Amino acid sequence: MTEAQSHVQVEEPVLPRKRTVPGRLDDGAASHVFESPRDDFRRMYFEVIDKIMTQLHDRFDQPSFRVVQNIEEMLISAANGKETAVPDDIAQLYGNDLDIDRLAMEMIMLPDLVRDFKEITSMFTLCDALSENKCNSIVRSMFSEVDKMLRIYLTIPVTSSTSERSFSALHQIKTYLRSTMTQKRLNGVMLSYIHKDRLDSVDLRQIAIAFTEGHETRQEYFGPF
Question: I need a surface site. Which of 17, 48, 127, 152 has the fewest CB within 10 A?
Answer without folding.
Answer: 17
